[in-house]
Amino acid sequence: MTTPHNFNHHFVKTNAILATAVLEANGWNAQVLAQELLVGPQSFVYVWDQESNWLWMCSVQKDDFISLSKSASNESDKRKGQIQRTACQFIGMAASGAAQKDNEDWQSMLGCAAVAYSGTTKTWELANKMRDCGHFVVIRYPNKQTGYATLRPFYVGPNGNNTALDALELKDILEQVKAADRQHHPEWFN
After folding, report:
1. Are 177 and 154 in contact (CB under 8 A)?
2. E strands within the chain?
3. Which SS3 state, helix, strand or coil, does residue 33 take?
């Protein structure tokens, strides 16, 4: 006998399988941490460490993204600075492999750090606070001149089908942004 619980379980599992297939078809190495989180509207977060060329992506349920980013946006300027520094440091740790060694739950931590970081940025405000979902991208530049890395966010609007950007398309976008940043912010690359 099919019960609502059984139906929901199979619906979630089927959605996870389909979402994983779409991600892999779009060039991503898909690891689904929680199948039930793939149901419904998603916002996508991409993190690129420019120095190591490490690229990572996660999807976050729309309401969870809005809740965490809004909470961070309401913090004091001092606390926002701490959120930004922590996100930057954790991205660097993930890119070097240190986060994976020290934290079993590093992907959830990185996703939360990136979403909280988004709420501290003008980009998030200009992207309608991610109310329309879409794609929030964070680039980490090494900025060796200052001795600390720089985070550079940007936003790509929703693609209409609630899926991640194609990995090759994103890499092209990242190269375009990097070229523009190199021209306008050469200090980030020294």
Report:
1. yes
2. 42-49, 54-61, 134-141, 150-156
3. coil
Q: Which residues of 84-106 are buried (b: 16+ CB within 10 A; e: fewer)?
A: beebbebbbbbbeeebeeeeeeb
Sequence-ordered alpha helix ranges (H) in 32-131: 62-73, 77-96, 98-102, 106-118, 122-126
The angle that helices 106-118 and 62-73 make with each other, rounded to 10 degrees, is 60
Q: Is the pTM of this model over 0.85?
A: no
Model pLDDT for residues 128-180, shown as the tens digit of each residue: 999 999 999 999 998 877 888 999 999 999 988 888 888 889 999 999 999 99
Q: Which token pair is 45?
A: 């977060």
**pLDDT by residue (tens digit) across 87-138?**
999 999 999 999 888 888 888 899 999 999 999 999 999 999 999 999 999 9
Q: What angle do CA 71, 73, 74 make, to 5 degrees?
A: 70
**Token digits of residue 49:** 């460490």
